[in-house]
Amino acid sequence: MSRSLFPALLKYWRGRAGLSQLDLSSAADVSSRHLSYLETGRAKPSEAMVRRLFETMAVPLRHQDEALVAAGFAPRFADPDRGEAPAPVRAAIARMLRQHEPFPMTVLDGGYRLVDRNEAAEAIFALMVAQPDRLRSADVDMVAFVFDAALARDAFVEWPLVARRMLNRLQRELLRTGDERVRALLDRALAYPGVDEAWRHPDDGDRLDATLEIHLRRGDVSLGFLTTMTTFTSPGTVSLEEVRLESFFPLDEATRQFCAAL
After folding, report:
1. Rounded to whole angstroms, how far apart are CA atoms 157 and 222?
2. Which among 124, 157, 198, 201 is placed 20 to 30 Å from 92, CA to CA?
3. Are 146 and 183 in a shared domain?
4. pTM score, two decimals?
């Protein structure tokens, strides 16, 4: 591992956080001289110092591990069992999926892949996509679900609004995390037909609310949902930090009755 990698990572994430050396040293309670030495490679950090600095900058756990390895330490947040969440957490998520019936709920990973969903989501998604067999693919993600005409693109009553909001979410997440998976998702989304050229740039005027109203129509079935995205706080592992639970709540009585009938 190159000795210059940790200083480069430290400087990179400090810049991404919009902090001066003085800002970071003050927030992390580290002398500005020592921080300067760390960024130039004149000093080697302890494991505790790496964690303190990168936690202060709210760097995602995946990238905190990269910094630890670059500084010569073992990764701290890597997941056991091939990246699976701990068994109690998996059991809790399974219970949440069941409890949310008869309304849809999905589980997304850090790459926005649909890794799990309850029976309501299975049934309603199958009704709303053009080619239901595509839902069985292990690599279906929310970008494909929203932008691919073989999936649900044509079912969104206000597709430009939903598509723009998803692009804004990806663009802001990329700015915050630098995650190459998010960059790949964003590039793929922008390559779909019908994506406005202006959407390639983040919309600073768009307020990224925690909820989103969506309206779906396929044939004679029309449904409206309020969707929310939930993440775990203080997750402790990379995969758990990246888990997202997307919950769908009916916007009207007709949607509630339709879901109940399923």
Report:
1. 9
2. 124
3. yes
4. 0.76
Residues 142 and 166 in one domain: yes
> What is the structure's pLDDT at 138?
67
CATH of the domain at 38: 1.10.260.40
Structure tokens at 144: 């494909």
Contact indicator for 230, 199 with CB cutoff of 8 Å: no
19 assigned to some structural domain: yes
DSSP track, 138-183:
TT-BHHHHHH-TTTTGGGBTTHHHHHHHHHHHHHHHHHHH--HHHH
Q: Which amino acid is at 257?
A: Q
Close Cβ partners of 221 (under 8 Å, ≥ 6 residues apart): 127, 128, 258
10-residue mean pLDDT series, the chain (262 residues): 79 91 93 93 93 92 90 82 67 94 93 91 94 82 93 94 91 84 92 89 64 92 94 74 90 96 89
Residue 248 to residues 106, 147, 185, 213, 245, Cα–Cα distance (Å):
9, 19, 23, 9, 10
**Angstrom distance (rounded) from CA 90 to CA 240:** 10
The vertex-241 CA angle with 236 and 79, nearest 5°, equals 60
Number of Cβ atoms within 10 Å of the Cβ of 139: 8
Q: Is residue 92 part of a domain?
A: yes
What residue type is 188 in one-letter code?
Answer: R
